[in-house]
Amino acid sequence: MEGAGNGEQRKGLWTVEEDIILMDYVKVHGKGKWNRAAKFTGLKRDGKSCRLRWMNYLSPSVKRGAFSEEEDDLIIRLHKLLGNRWSLIAGRIPGRTDNQVKNHWNIHLSKKLGVKGKYKVSDSSSEFSKKPEADFSIKSSSNDRSIPSNKTEAELQNVLEGSHEKAKEITSTQEPILTSDFYDPYLYAPSLMELLDESLDFLWHDF
DNA sequence: AAATCACGCAACCGCAGTGAT
DNA sequence: TATCACTGCGGTTGCGTGATT
């Protein structure tokens, strides 16, 4: 891979200078091709590191600061439904990354809920507690936000498909909340979040 | 004031999936 | 069709910092 012949790779925390270099690169070339970004900028970081730094920290869509009660509540409920599918959960919480959600869960929420064992989600605690054999067959167009398959799959699909249409309606009449570059109507329409939240409610009573 | 501990966050690692050639 | 590069994800680790002793 890249970097193999590149002598020493820097590790650890990013410096301000590195951040600026990476941000400048993204400004000009856009996201993606992170390995090339690493080469092009001369950063002694590999592509994965550049990507992670951007996604988790530099991206303007990343919300900093403490999690709100609403976010906590949403995470708890989505985790109940989806298990440790952090990217999926984060995808439903505007401005939060999977890393943030994961950390927040492990540090705060798992304690709060008395979940035993770091990262462990008991098999029974999550309806969709992952495994490859499960049919995560429904894919959204833009990303791997697949939806677990089980008896509620169709319902969930309806929720999300309906949400998609509603999102278009909602977002077509309002300004994007965040920069267009990262704008995802699935995620950033507050009305949609409420809708999704309400729509999922019927799923919770089974748990 | 120094040492220790606990917590929180950022970053790394390994693997799997996907697309391009 | 096979291979490779790239991306994304979840789990884990390491470091910085504030609190406590």
TrEMBL record:
* SUPFAM superfamilies hit by this protein: Homeodomain-like
- Molecular-function GO terms, alphabetical: DNA binding
Q: Name one GO cellular component term.
A: nucleus
Q: Keywords for this entry? A: DNA-binding, Nucleus, Repeat, Transcription, Transcription regulation
> Please, which domain of life does this record's source organism belong to?
Eukaryota
InterPro entries reported in the protein's UniProt record: Homeodomain-like_sf, Myb_dom, Myb_TF_plants, SANT/Myb
Q: Which CDD domains match?
A: SANT
Q: What are the HTH myb-type domain coordinates in residue numbering? A: 6-58, 59-113
Q: Where in the cell is it found?
A: Nucleus
Q: Entry's Pfam families? A: Myb_DNA-binding
Record-annotated Myb-like domain positions: 6-58, 59-109
Stored SMART domains: SANT
Q: Does the keyword RNA-binding apply?
A: no
User: What is this protein's name?
Assistant: TRANSCRIPTION FACTOR MYB8-RELATED-RELATED
Source species of the chain: Salix koriyanagi
